[in-house]
Amino acid sequence: MRASYKHNPLPTPGDVVWCRFPQHIDLGEPGPKCRPAVVYAVSPEHHSVKVVYGTSQKTDKIYKSEFVVKKTDANFSDSGLAFDTKFDMNTIVTIPYDSDWFDMAPVKPGQKPPTNPKMGVLHPSYIPAVKEAIKNAIHLAA
Question: What pTM does this model have?
Answer without folding.
Answer: 0.92
